[in-house]
Specification:
This protein has about 350 residues and is mostly beta strands. About 10% of the residues lie in helices and about 25% in strands. It is built from three helices and 19 strands. A hairpin with a 3-residue loop joins strand 4 and strand 5. The longest helix is centred in the N-terminal third of the chain and has 17 residues. The protein is globular, with a radius of gyration of 18 Å. It starts with a helix and ends in a 21-residue tail after the last helix.
């Protein structure tokens, strides 16, 4: 326990050193920090899109479609600890921010986010932002960015398949790029819902393009599951696999113990939770699973302050994520599955 605490303190120190301090702030909080009632603050755990991801590379990825584009040989990224690639929980996202994907949603049971199937959702135009503007840690607005829906690639029918990440990682209309096949960057879909209301209501939903469904697998990158959806409870052992650049290599599984379940900053009904564990910039969006198999939520923030010894990781609970998505989380057996398997059990 002592060694884990010391590791957590070291991680916090590294993150604090890496973040610029806002000189205009009277309390000298890190830039983008969210003050919390009773003291302390929270930090979004996304990182900017890397400099090697240029507008020219982005356009090549869009043009390549399901063929993908090889990761540049000079790309400065950590060695991946992923056991499996694909559009699945734990996949590595590079645009519009350096983040991690959580769970697959919907499948054949979900209505596609198209004009015919969007119901009461508002349609949003395509977002034409280019790499270089850079979403990253502290870039969130703190206000809701959803619910909205977009019509998908080229305005055609959507696939009805979705994958989630953190709301502060992407806005409605964003094209989303991740490593969807070994060594290949692919534009897998477009963000159709995004909520960025700080802790307990921070979630985004990306609709996967029909031609990319072949790479979908609800099974996690480092093992199997999630086998169900469960509300986290204090004392639960949990595990996540994110792509934070400070701790371990990309996709390394990390364990923790749930220490808080309660209301979020902008929501009530135990939509927020926290756990004692390790995370760093780039882990935002990660799917968090109970050690026994069920999905319990996502990872969005590092919480630092006198109430937390020394800190804890926070996110949005899985049942509330399903409510925000309007679609169920897709389940998978605990047996690892390295191959694409576009089938959804829930």
């Amino acid at each position: 326990m002592r060694s884990r605490r010391l590791l957590m303190l070291a991680v916090i120190s590294v993150i604090a050193l890496a973040l610029p301090v806002n000189a205009a702030s009277s309390d000298s909080l890190p830039e983008g920090a969210i003050p919390l009632a009773g003291g302390g603050y929270a930090l979004e755990l996304s990182a900017p899109t890397p400099a090697w991801y240029t507008p020219e590379l982005h356009q090549r990825i869009l043009d390549a479609g399901a063929a993908g584009v090889p990761i540049p040989s000079d790309a400065d990224i950590p060695a991946s600890g992923l056991a499996f690639t694909g559009i699945r929980p734990g996949a590595w996202m590079f645009f519009p921010a350096w983040c991690t994907m959580n769970f697959v949603f919907g499948g054949a049971t979900a209505a596609p986010a198209t004009e015919a199937g969007a119901s009461a959702l508002d349609l949003a135009p395509k977002n034409d932002k280019e790499p270089g503007g850079g979403k990253g840690q502290g870039g969130g607005s703190g206000g809701t960015k959803g619910p909205k829906a977009d019509s998908g690639s080229g305005g055609g029918a959507g696939s009805g398949w979705y994958i989630g990440t953190a709301g502060h990682c992407t806005e409605v209309g964003d094209e989303v790029t991740l490593i969807a096949a070994p060594g290949l960057l692919m534009n897998i879909g477009r963000t159709v819902k995004s909520y960025n209301d700080e802790i307990g209501r921070d979630f985004a939903l990306i609709e996967i393009y029909p031609e990319m469904v072949q790479y979908v697998n609800p099974s996690m990158t480092y093992w199997g599951g999630p086998t169900a959806t469960a509300q986290p409870a204090i004392g639960d052992p949990v595990v996540h696999a994110g792509h934070g650049a400070v701790v371990g290599t990309g996709g390394t599984p990390r364990a923790g113990i749930v220490t808080y379940v309660g209301d979020g900053d902008q929501s009530s009904g135990e939509t927020a939770y926290g756990w004692d564990g390790v995370a760093s910039l780039g882990d935002s969006g990660s799917g968090v699973r109970h050690a026994s198999g069920p999905a319990v939520g996502n990872l969005t923030h590092l919480v630092v302050g006198t109430e937390y010894v020394p800190a804890f990781i926070a996110g949005t609970t899985a049942p509330y994520m399903e409510q925000l998505a309007g679609a169920p989380i897709c389940y998978a057996p605990l047996t690892p599955n390295p191959l694409p398997a576009p089938a959804c059990a829930s």
